[in-house]
């Protein structure tokens, strides 16, 4: 349950980062990279924040 919450929240953060990047740059590739980077960075961060 905890892993699903972390992964879902990280995907949401990644989508927000990608959407904001797309709105500012109008570049799909940059938005995709920002979304992947946002997702990848938020997984370990949320893992430490949502500890048992």
Summarize this structure as a short list of keywords or feature phrases.
52 residues, mainly alpha, 2 helices
Average pLDDT confidence is 96
Main sheet overview:
none
Rg from Cα: 12 Å
What would the principal axes of the Cα set say about the shape? elongated
Which consecutive residue ranges, at least 5 long each, have pLDDT under 50? none
Count helical runs.
2
Quote the distance from N terminus to C terminus: 12 Å
Percentage of helical residues? Answer: over 70%
SSE run: HH
Overall strand count: 0
Query: Which structural category fits the helices and strands?
Result: mainly alpha
Content of β-strand: under 5%
Layout: helices, strands, pairs:
Elements: H1 2-25, H2 28-49
Helix pairs in contact: 1-2
Explain the overall architecture:
With 52 residues, the chain is mainly α. 88% of the residues lie in helices and 0% in strands. α1 (2-25) runs antiparallel to α2. The longest helix has 24 residues, at 2-25.
């Amino acid at each position: 349950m905890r892993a699903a919450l972390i992964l879902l929240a990280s995907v949401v953060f990644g989508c927000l980062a990608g959407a904001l990047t797309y709105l500012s740059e109008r570049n799909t590739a940059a938005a995709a990279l920002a979304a992947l980077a946002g997702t990848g960075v938020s997984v370990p961060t949320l893992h430490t924040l949502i500890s048992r």
